[in-house]
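Posting this for the archive.
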Amino acid sequence: ALPGHLLRGLLPLLTVFRLERAEGAARRAGLSTQPIWRKLWDDVMKTRPPNSENITCWRKKFLETFFSNVLHGVLDVSSDWRLNDHHFSPLLHSSPHVSQLTLCNMLQGAVELTAEHNQKVLENLAGSLRILKFQHLLSSDQSIRRSLVLLLHRLIHHGSVSQVSMYSWPVPDTVLLVLILSMSAGFWRSGNALVYHSSPCGLCREEDKAQSQESAQERAERGRYDEREWSDDENQKESPRAPKEADVEVNGYEADACLNSVLSRPRSPPLQNQVCEEASSEVPCDDTSIQGGSSPRCISDQLSCHPVLRKTRRRLKSAVGKKRRCLRRSRGPYADPEDLYDFVFTVAREDNSRLLDKNSATEGENAENWSTSSPGSPCTGHAGCKKRGGSAGIFSLKAAHRFRSVSTLELFSIPLTGETCRTLSNLLSSWVSLENLVLSYNGLGADIFCILSGLRALSRHSDCHLRVVRVSDVFSHMPCMELVRCILSAFPQLHTLSVSFDLKNQLEGNRPEGNPSCSEVEIPESCLEQLEIRFPREPLHTAFLLPVLKASKSLQQLSLDSATLPCSQELGLLLEVLKECNPNLKKLSFHDVNLAEHQKEVLLLLQDPVLQEITFSFCRLFESSTTEFLSEIINTVKRNSSLKSLKLPGNRLGNHRLVALADIFSEDSSSSLCQLDVSSNCIKPDGLLEFTKKLEGHIQQRGGQIQFTHLRLFQNWLDQDAETAQEALRRLKAVCSVVNDSWDSSQAFADYISVM
């Protein structure tokens, strides 16, 4: 209730605990606490946060970073009096503001958060946390993995985490990696069956209670139905196949017991009886099992080979029901995460051995493969996946209840083995909640086909939500355009597709047997809005790209990186198709594409009335050009009122061309250009100052009416004359927002010479 002027003077004197409690009062008084939180950041964190210009709430930024630093033991709360308040519990009071959290190294943070005294902290995180990151993980023991299981279960299965990202894990612990992937997809194995929680979880106990009540009603109804059914059979004395009531009860009990034994036997072949094995090989599973679950027909066929079970096929449904109830009652203490690994790589293989036999038997008859067949078959160890070994099979998911799963999965710089790729493929095959998938520098190689198999299986689900796919790696195992066409043919509903490779694999032509090129796969009309392709120095053959563009009528952003133009006509054809088939294209980017001999096409793009952002990054625009070409660029941009952003990094503009670009904003210009990027262009301080003076003159002539708002100056030679550079930047910042860095040009030049 303090007056505003008193509150304004009091706020900087408060501890973090008191400042947080005074936030509402300050807001009602029309006072902003943002400057105070920003000063707290500078005083306590003593670092400049990345992208500080984009931070909208310093309160949240401070408390979120504060939580992470305290959790990992890198910040001592006694180091600043504003943090040292006996009412202030660092983790508890900052946790409601944490929307993203990074766990690293030995997962000490997971152990701390699952400790008994931090139960309330974990509950807060379950409601606030959206992004969970893992970075630089190391192998961990069983107790640490158990803490991780509890954490993931609470934050993902019963929480609000929607994104799981993993970074920089050069030698991943396979057990730990599979554990994180599986729980992110909504699965948790405990005991001898695929279930999703253990008894200490109160939320799961509540769900179990509701399920048990529902199951009791189902049992009662089923019992009444069985009584009526067998009563009718007793009345039909003329039927020679009607069993006696006593036999039915005994045989039914034996059927239930055998079924329980079959389904609950852990990490061993589900049926040891040789007769059963022969029977199961003769009668393959239904095709529905390849989508991640075992068909009821498979179970039925396994049971039919037992002499007792042949008499009681009619009680199969009841037996399955009893087995499910037994599973619910048998959910015991936490499972060893090693069991999950065994389940993925052992039990799953057993459940699908017949499927593999069926696939191999029919391979000669049906020449369809992952690229041309109807989508829906996850990876089952085809030739492309067998190159690196492994024994992973398919998850038996169809009959299982799934927990909540995340919608974004990102894997950066984590090598994936053949086993892990097959596990991921099988998880992807039914991960319908997944919206964003990022696989970056995972060393996939031939296992890219395994991942594609899982994605095509996922595309069969009508409720699939996948909208963003980003794949990048050092070596490409297939041509970029072929990969683009394969993904789009399976997912025409994608909004964003990014394919990026650094180098071309010399063995690219050695594809798995039975998987011909899908470069001729028909591409249905797609919803694609953003397409990014980084070619590993491949020729840009428009014959493969144009069908993709023609099918993408909604395309708004196109980025082509590191492509070579085999002939001068290729770029012209591309521009024609863009104009005819992509009327909504707003952003076009070329990076590291030699456009020195394509001046005509460059000018055509700059005068396009629809494009709002054009990027020519390291495109050698002025390598063999004359001064007339620069004048034509300036005049073209001056007449274009739709272009908002022009990015020209790495084109050796130098001082004189930068000064000339200031004429874009002259009095006779109709340009609406707001952003200009001239990074990495050998600009010196005197050239920048001259550009600034010329720009100021044009602004005065236009009466201060100019739309120019952002100038990017990264990696230029501004350190050669610090005083002149500071004057130029000071005057520029009065006109627009300037983004630059403290770049050591002499060291950069030395590095350049050293690698020549």
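The first strand starts at residue 100 and ends at 105. Confidence is low (pLDDT under 50) at residues 190-200, 237-377, 382-400, 508-516.
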